[in-house]
Design a protein that fits this description.
The protein is of the alpha+beta class. It has 13 helices and 14 strands. The protein has helices spanning about 60-75, 110-115, 120-140, 180-205, 215-235, 245-255, 285-295, 300-315, 325-340, 355-370, 375-385, 435-440, 450-460, and strands at about 5, 40-45, 50-55, 80-85, 90, 95, 100-105, 145, 155-160, 160-165, 175, 235-240, 260-265, 275-285. The protein starts with a strand and ends with a helix.
Length: about 450
Amino acid sequence: MPRFISTTPDSRLLPFPWSTPLADWPINLLVALPRGLSRHVVRFIQVGDSVYAAKEVVEHLANHEYRLLTDLHRLGTPSVEPIGIITERMDHDCNPLDPILLTRHLEFALPYRSLFSPGVRQETVSRLIDAMVVLIARLHLIGFKWGDISLSNILFRRDAGAFAAYLVDAETGEMHDRLTDGQRLQDMEIARTNLFGDFLDLQAAGRLQAPFDPLALVSMVMTRYAELWQELTGAEEFSVSEMDRIEGRVRRLNALGFDVAEMDIQTDDGSSKIRIQPKVVDAGHHQRRLMRLTGLDTEENQARRLLNDLDTYRFRSGQTKADEAVVAHRWLTEQFEPVMQQVPAALRAKREPAQLFHELLDYRWYKSQREHRDVPLVEAAKGYVRDVLQGLPDEAMNKDALIPADGSPQLVNPFDPSQGYVEEGDDEPLPPDPWESAADAAPEPSPFLDIAALRAKAASS
Ligand SMILES: Nc1ncnc2c1ncn2[C@@H]1O[C@H](COP(=O)(O)OP(=O)(O)O)[C@@H](O)[C@H]1O
Ligand SMILES: [Mg+2]
């Protein structure tokens, strides 16, 4: 009898064929969703309304990964959510089988192979790298040494015009009180080797063409990480007449999405110098604010965009003096929800609500520009659903978009649904994403991780 270890026991797991090696599970139990490269056998299974990722892995690693994912989850770090471990498995001849670690499938996650396609835009790659660097820095801030940073161990989700990165594989991780510089750099050396290999693979598969170059991409990751880490933790020294630099630093950190728990300020007796060093906690500054005001759980840049819209709404509707929480509630019921009601259930799987709202705001902006009028939100929502949403590929991978793995022709390999849809293959180009093409025409948005620009802005204001 297998043993289930989980904080939330789930009887729906009982009927699965735990005495069969995961690689031999019948196709009708599996769900075809794209996934990255892996050492272990990984399959997606549907359990009630949810989809879980199942990974067959030796016992001590399963326990270790489960514990680490639980810690990361508790600390609010973007990582997949652990569900449980199934141990003490035996096959029909009473041979022991490795345990299975279950995690919740991350909805709307994009495997990196579908983000890198021939002709991928420089902007897109740059933003993927930013997302990756922010994730690594967040993990390092809480004392997590990953030990295996690679593209396959990261999942990406759309986050307004950028991406948000999630940790998917914690098997090699170590949790410390805090990391020494040596530990961080060691982690980055592993990243350098792995990522170089990942980029070379993409290049060999024709998904990464000039001007992209694996070496240059890897050094971009390294440089941006070093810059971000310096900004997050570095000490700054200036004269007492420049006290506003303290506030400037806090503002820059907030703009990057991080909060400052404490600012260590030292002055030397008799000297006119001040030295500051921030203690930064976790990213998600805007995310937390939006969550507090509206209850919406979004990514960081989506939150920024929605908060901007909330501010615009507040101003336009003449509620600048009203309580913020009250306005937020009105915005939710008068702006956000009516838009969501315009989206037919069948199309909901294509985009997360916050991402959809962000894209709709872009759509409305273009339409208003073209037609020289203020297009009402609900009218824009109808147009967006008709002109954009309907034509988008189902990247959603949430439960509404699931196709049972019945060997239908869209699968890359009908006998291994875990290889995902043909969409991952090379001959079938993805339908054009109007949002991506529209972004080409749009004025260049300021890069999220452009620390130099943030410094310049703080200096000039
Ligand atoms: N919870 C999950 N949600 C979405 N995708 C997942 C999840 N768990 C695993 N995957 C996919 O499966 C792949 C392999 O999982 P991983 O834990 O990295 O296995 P391995 O330890 O063998 O490298 C990942 O690259 C990812 O694409
Ligand atoms: Mg992995």
